[in-house]
Amino acid sequence: MTVQTQTAAETFDLTLTRVLDAPRALVFEMWSNADHKSQWWCPKAFTLIDSAENFRSGGDWMSIMEAPSGSQYRMEGTYTEIVESERIVFTHHWVEDGARGPKTLITVIFEEEGTRTRLTFTQALIDNESARNNQQNGWNEFLDMLTSALAERR
Prior knowledge:
Strand content: 35-45%
Structural class: alpha+beta
CATH architecture: 2-Layer Sandwich
Radius of gyration: 16 Å
Helix content: 10-25%
Number of helices: 3
Number of domains: 1
Largest sheet: 8 strands, antiparallel
Distance between the termini: 55 Å
Number of strands: 8
CATH class: Alpha Beta
Shape: globular
């Protein structure tokens, strides 16, 4: 059996930070409540066509998005840690032709900044630079959609 280990310098982790104009409890609720999450959980111009949430440690989640071209993209995973209004940790897989792709680990941290919230999103275990760049583009659009959904709630 061959074991491969990557050092920090060889990883392709992605970290995105946003300061959102909303209190931490509301931002956490936007991630934890399936009805709220359905308003923003996809890139711009995409449509969320199906999702399932079991928001608890050990609970599974699944989403299917549709691009303007009609192509569908499925992602799924498992929540591994939830700390109310502070942190959500979950696995993430793309699913293609019924087969799960490589697993990544996503950590979302929520920190108060006065009346606003600093959200730090980290995706670890990404295979390569190209995959990281693709993930970065997609997740930035997700976070743009979250920002818009929060603005509509004001």
